[in-house]
Amino acid sequence: MSEDRPQQIPYLSWCPPSPVFRLPSAPPIPVTLLALCLASLAPVSAGPPGAPLERIAFGSCCNQKRSQAIWPAISALRPGLFLFLGDNIYGDSEDMEVLRAKYAELNANPGYAALRGICPVLATWDDHDYGANDAGAEYSRREPSRQLFLEAFQIPKDRGPWQRPGVYDAHTFGPVGRRVQIILLDTRYFRGPLLKAAPGQSRKLGPYVENPDPTATMLGEAQWQWLEARLREPAELRLIGSSIQVLPVDTNWERWQNLPHERARLLRLLEQSGTEPILILSGDRHLGELMRQEIRPGRVIHEATSSGLSHAGGGQNDEPNRFRTGPIFRDLNFGTIDLDWSGERPRCTVSIRDISGKAVRTMTVPAQ
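and the corresponding structure tokens:
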């Protein structure tokens, strides 16, 4: 199916629930067995193809060599969809056999396999699964890496990413009146050069400075045109996945503000879109935070950053961010979006959750 039309994606099949008994004297359940048991539970938003989504989970930064004890907590919440927002493996190699082996490790992880049995997984990439730290269009192995990514996430051969450069794609879930559009951007394949801070400049808040070159691109013109077309498609809620943060402007880590003209172009495009709520989802930073920015009177864009699934501790507790709605969360985390369709417009409860699944940061995205 062409990516130029919204695609209704059926839920993956899962095993029917079966009773599990535990005697009082039984030893603790191993994580592997727990993951398999969780896979037998139906998603909270289970239903026929085209049913509205009720809960979406998302996360990023998952090193296949580290403990991934967070997967059972995600599965226990029974999301109807999981969004992988980049650094899905830590490949960091120009040897495609190394990347292939690391994708195999991810897919063999019992906790991740259990989640895949519960709900569909959609993904975009960031630098470490792309193949090199902070890399963009200059990465020499971007094309074979792209093909490995599409194979690892079992992207159907008739989907757009197989027909063009990059891994960007879009999907629509739910019936008319309850449609959620998922737009997954590619901020690596086409991205222009970053500028590093000069010797002597403080790097406490990151190694980069803004690149004023108007020809330096984040998405590439073809992806920009594609995005404009996707935003003209009907939806009651839009989720935009960007591997790097969009709203923050007060630090110098990787972010859209590294190319300020590209960030401004994106916000202008969102400003010109309809009145439906827009929530940006991002990763990369090894921390969790929630943000909002009013881009014109009455038009607010929200962003939720969730990172990481296997390791965290990025940033600083007092790190500036004028758009943040509350404190940073610097431990292992994932995110959820709970959707309330009872009104005329969707209402979203966005949460950053810890390794146990407890919501530690929350914001509400009301109808606008």
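(Above: one complete record from the training split.) The domain at 31-365 is CATH 3.60.21.70 (Purple Acid Phosphatase; chain A, domain 2).
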